[in-house]
Amino acid sequence: KAKTEGGNQFLFFSSEMNQVAQESMRMENELRNALKLQQIEVYYQPQVDAQTLQPIGAEALVRWNHPKFGLVSPATFIPLAESTGLITEIGNFVMREAVKQTYQWYQQGHNLRIGINLSSRQFTQSNLMKEVQELLSSNDLPSELIDLEITESLAMSDAESTAHILNGLKAMGVSISIDDFGTGYSSLAYLHSFPIDTIKIDRCFVQNLNTQAGQAIANTIIAMAKSLDLEVIAEGIELTEQIDYLQARHCDILQGFKFGKPMPAREFEQWLREQPKKSAATNSVAENST
Ligand code: C2E
Ligand code: MG
Ligand code: MG
Ligand code: MG
C-alpha cells in the first residue's frame, strides 16, 4: 500500500513539476522574443541631492511590457534571464539604451549620472569591459556619468575577481556603486580595496528608520561610508521623516517614490521640468511631491 502511495506521489509531483517546467519554458521563449518585439524598456527613477533636493541623476530600471501580463517586474524576469543566459543580451540592451539616454540628456545640458544595474552573469562575462569601452568611446560623454551598480552579495561572492573586474571598469572612468548595501556580508578589508565611489543603503533599512535598530544601522553605514570617503545613496524614500533623518545624518543622495517612481524617459524629462529650481537646502519637497 505504502509503495502504491509512493508511486502516486511520484506521479503527482512529476506532473506538477512538468507543469512548472512547461510554464517556465513558455516564459523563457517569450522572454527570448521580448527584445525583438520591443517589449523591453528602460525606466528611470530620480535621484536627488539630499541637501538641496535637486535632481542629480537617475537609476535605470528595466521593464518587460508583456502583452498579456502588463509590466513584468525585473524581480521576476531577471532571475530567469540569468539562468537562461538571456541576461547578456538584455543587459547589453539596457546599458546601450541608458548610455544613449544619458548622452542625450548631457547634450541638452543636464549633467545627470545614471545608475545601471549589472547582474552576476553580466558582471563576470568576459566581454563586459569591451562592451562598456565601446559604449563610452562612441560619444564624448564624461564616463563618470555612467554609474555601474553591483550588489553587495555579488561583490563579495568572489572578492578577488570582483576587485580585478572593478579595477578594469574604473580605469575607463565610470562610477561604481555597491547596491543593496547591508543585506549581505561585507568584509571591510575588501570593501576598502574595491575602487568604489558609492554605496546604496538598502530600502529595508530606510523603511525601519522609525525604529532604534533601523536608525543604528543607517547611522553605522553612513559613518562607515564617510570614513572610507564614499558617497552614500539611500534607496526607498517614501516619507518626509526619512528625508529629514537622512539629511541630518549627511547622507548624500536620496532615491524613492517620495521623489518619483521609475518612469519612461519622456516622463522623466517632464518630471525634470517640474522640479523647482532652488540652490539652498529646503524642506519644501514635502509640498512639491505630494
Ligand atoms: P535595485 O537595483 O535595488 O532597484 C531599486 C528597486 O527599488 C526598484 O525596483 C525600484 O522601483 C524600487 N524602489 C525605489 N524606490 C522605492 C520606494 O520608495 N518604495 C518601494 N517600495 N520601492 C522602491 P524594480 O525596478 O522592481 O527592480 C528590482 C530589482 O531588479 C532591482 O533592485 C535590481 O536588482 C533588478 N533590476 C532592475 N533593472 C535591472 C537591470 O536593468 N539589470 C539588472 N541586472 N537588474 C535589474
Ligand atoms: Mg548608483
Ligand atoms: Mg540598483
Ligand atoms: Mg538596491
TrEMBL record:
Stretches for region Disordered: 273-290
Domain EAL: from-to ranges: 24-276
Domain of life the protein comes from: Bacteria
Residue stretches of biased makeup (Polar residues): 280-290
Name of the protein in question: EAL domain-containing protein
Source organism of the structure: Thiomicrorhabdus marina
